[in-house]
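ok new one. same drill as before - structure tokens go in, u give me an amino acid for every spot. 390 of them this time. try not to just spam alanines like last time pls lmao
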């Protein structure tokens, strides 16, 4: 199905993801979706052979009426996975108990993160509902399917996502939303800085398809949506009206190097900005992506072979790669230009020391002073690692 036609489907009733995504993968054929409204989150139901599993039971009893009329009986619900403890995602558990057979048998298990609301856990306990806690990196068997648990505190402390790695599909609750950004709920232990880190972690999984708690499923563009939420989280941290380059500088100063790098890239998409390029290269060096940094420094040096920032940065990157002798050449160029350039002298001493040329290094006064005051233990450790611990 073309992307432009995805909204032509009647979503007032349950639909298999295979129809929404136009993909006949068994997981999509076995997973149903019904959208949430103001009082309810989206609800997903997976038929895994031995029964059905809900991912967020929502808070809309009318959704169950059609589900039990067309797809299953109430007792077929065996597992309920909760993305976080907000009522619009959870209260469907109580709606299920309105069915006499379910209330009598209580044949399902609720899966949730252990930091979920105490009130909710107390209610489950009083109703004798079986609860199992899920933890980061747990693998959940659903018959032919496996879901990985990813703990993503931020919106709430107990937020988790469930990832079907084979199809790249991720159930995100409110951690990631299309066309919106769910702010941290401090009452539920939410924190903006945690949310930022959770979004960064999700990007490391490179999901393809987004199955959010609100809004429509997104085929093939999960990473775009996550990056959009990540940008929104950064803007919330630094201020909505702050330009990307100012946000990058602020974040770099605070030590959020990967976030600063992200902002630099957004700034550079809007046009050439030499300062953004310099800051990007510095961030790449700081997070150990030396080859990427060197690529930028080389372009700078093509334009200006005497670019002080690029010479120093490339020398530092070469040291990071262990190319100490080559790095010394760049620091020498800087010292030829300015014999009093302290940073170049200190870095040259470091490169000499790590290259096994300790006596030469100690002849450099600026390095010798820094070595005694700051670098001794760190450089000795690097040297030890380089020699294999001998």
């Amino acid at each position: 199905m073309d992307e432009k036609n995805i909204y032509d489907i009647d979503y007032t009733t349950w639909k298999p993801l295979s129809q929404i995504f136009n993909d006949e993968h068994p997981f999509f054929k076995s997973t149903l979706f019904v959208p949430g409204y103001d009082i309810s989150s989206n609800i997903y139901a997976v038929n895994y052979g031995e029964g059905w599993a809900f991912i967020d039971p929502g808070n809309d009893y009318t959704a169950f009426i059609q589900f039990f009329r067309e797809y299953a009986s109430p007792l077929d619900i065996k597992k309920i996975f909760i993305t976080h403890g907000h009522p619009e995602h959870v209260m469907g558990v109580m709606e299920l108990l309105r069915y006499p057979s379910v209330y009598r048998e209580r044949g399902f298990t609720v899966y949730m993160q252990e930091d979920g609301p105490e009130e909710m856990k107390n209610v489950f306990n009083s109703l004798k509902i079986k609860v199992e806690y899920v933890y980061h990196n747990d693998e959940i068997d659903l018959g032919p399917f496996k879901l990985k648990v990813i703990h993503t505190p931020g919106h709430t402390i107990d937020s988790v996502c469930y990832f079907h790695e084979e199809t790249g599909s991720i159930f995100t609750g409110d951690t990631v939303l299309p066309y919106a950004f769910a702010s941290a709920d401090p009452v539920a232990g939410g924190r903006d800085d945690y949310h930022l880190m959770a979004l960064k972690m999700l990007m490391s999984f490179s999901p393809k398809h987004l199955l959010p708690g609100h809004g429509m499923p997104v085929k093939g563009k999960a990473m775009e949506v996550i990056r959009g939420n990540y940008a929104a989280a950064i803007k919330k941290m630094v201020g909505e009206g702050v330009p990307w380059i100012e946000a990058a500088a602020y974040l770099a100063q605070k030590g959020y190097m990967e976030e600063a790098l992200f902002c630099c890239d957004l700034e550079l998409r809007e046009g050439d900005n030499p300062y953004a390029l310099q800051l990007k290269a510095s961030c790449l060096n700081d997070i150990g992506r030396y080859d990427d940094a060197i690529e930028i420094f080389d372009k700078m040096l093509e334009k200006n072979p005497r670019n002080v920032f690029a010479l120093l940065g490339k020398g530092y990157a070469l040291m990071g790669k262990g190319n100490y002798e080559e790095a010394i050449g760049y620091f020498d160029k800087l010292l030829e230009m300015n014999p009093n350039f302290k940073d170049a002298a200190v870095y040259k001493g470091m490169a000499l020391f790590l290259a096994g040329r300790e006596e030469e290094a100690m002849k450099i006064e600026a390095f010798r002073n820094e070595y005694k005051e700051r670098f001794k233990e760190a450089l000795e450790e690097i040297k030890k690692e380089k020699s294999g611990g001998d």
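The two ends are 62 Å apart (CA to CA). and btw The mean pLDDT is 92.
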